[in-house]
Amino acid sequence: MPQHKNHNPACCCRKIRGFGRRITPARHAVLDALSARGEHLTAEEVFKAASRHYPDIGLATIYRTLELFTKFGMVNKFDTGDDKARYEFADGPGAKGHHHHLVCTSCRRIVDYNDFINEETELLRRTEEGLANKYGFKINTHILQFYGLCKDCAK
Amino acid sequence: MPQHKNHNPACCCRKIRGFGRRITPARHAVLDALSARGEHLTAEEVFKAASRHYPDIGLATIYRTLELFTKFGMVNKFDTGDDKARYEFADGPGAKGHHHHLVCTSCRRIVDYNDFINEETELLRRTEEGLANKYGFKINTHILQFYGLCKDCAK
DNA sequence: TTATCTGCAAATAATTTGCAGTCTT
DNA sequence: AAGACTGCAAATTATTTGCAGATAA
């Protein structure tokens, strides 16, 4: 996992403080969990990972923390069709780590890809612009995900 | 709401029977609810609408029916970020009614658009092809949604 | 006839919330 | 000190499931 600029502790702490919020052991543990344990973690998975460094942490705190980070734009919350939210560090369009997801509907494996990102980003940008004009929306985000069967499950 | 070929009762019934399943009053009521009450209904909304014609219907039946129709490809199930699934008749890419969603994160209004559908569809098709080759996925669906604030909520 | 379908009530499972005490700043 | 943050337990909410009876084919 490459270490993107958004993901290092110093930057995250600055951001949190910038919003007038506090740095706590629980929040550190969540940040660590998110950067150490790869992408697209469920709240439960973040909880398990964070518990290792900080055994007293509670699941409710995980939820509150992830919600907060999501609100700050540090984290993306998304859903892949099972009924658990998933979380990962956010990389805005254009950032090195920006990617979309390819989801296996059978084994729930999630593949990050960024092979067509430039083309996609460009079209999405134009679409956003067009939609904003026509419908008067102020668009903040989009979700693009592909669903199918991975090689193993397709057999 | 235009009446697409996929949405008329005769075609739906044929499809259901084609899968070896039965036509029942409950299923009729769900079909009616979906075509009469517009798009992107929650299970609860389908339930209310269907209850009007068929008061004895139960919510569990709504869920089971919608799941079945989704499995048959007659209905799309999707999610707009609140934690309720939403359902609408499916129009495959290329069909007249094919569209994507623009969601207001404040008032939860959902706008259907198909302004850039051709371009989008074309890029998505190419992307699917590329991803299928590179990652060995057999891709079945995609989700593309834009999130932002509608005109009223942006004030 | 017979497998599918149903409503109901109870069970799940993810997420949220109230609260009293504990920290960060 | 003051407000932000916490863990815990209880509450919520959407969805699922078991079951015995009803019904479409």
Describe the secondary structure blueprint for this structure.
2 copies of one chain form a homodimer.
Chain A: H1 9-18, H2 25-36, E1 41-42, H3 43-53, H4 59-71, E2 75-79, E3 85-89, E4 100-104, E5 110-113, H5 117-135, E6 138-149, H6 151-154
Parallel strand pairs in A: 4-6
Antiparallel strand pairs in A: 1-3, 2-3, 4-5
Helix pairs in contact in A: 2-3, 3-4
The first copy, chain A, binds a DNA duplex (25 and 25 nucleotides) through residues 17, 20-27, 42-44, 56-61, 63-64, 83-85.
Architecture overview:
2 copies of one chain form a homodimer. Chain A is an alpha+beta fold and 155 residues long. The first copy, chain A, folds into 2 domains: 1-96, Winged helix-like DNA-binding domain superfamily/Winged helix DNA-binding domain (Arc Repressor Mutant, subunit A), CATH 1.10.10; 98-155, Ferric-uptake regulator, C-terminal dimerisarion domain (Dna Ligase, domain 1, 2-Layer Sandwich). Chain A has 6 helices and 6 strands; from the N terminus they run ααβααββββαβα. Chain A has helices spanning 9-18, 25-36, 43-53, 59-71, 117-135, 151-154, and strands spanning 41-42, 75-79, 85-89, 100-104, 110-113, 138-149. In chain A, a hairpin with a 5-residue loop joins strand 2 (75-79) and strand 3 (85-89). In chain A, helix 3 (43-53) packs across helix 4 (59-71). The relative contact order of chain A is 0.12. Chain A binds chain B through residues 79, 83, 102, 104-105, 111, 113, 115-116, 119-120, 123, 126-128, 130-132, 134-151, 154, and chain B through 79, 83, 102, 104-105, 111, 113, 115-116, 119-120, 123, 126-128, 130-132, 134-151, 154. The structure holds a DNA duplex (25 and 25 nucleotides).
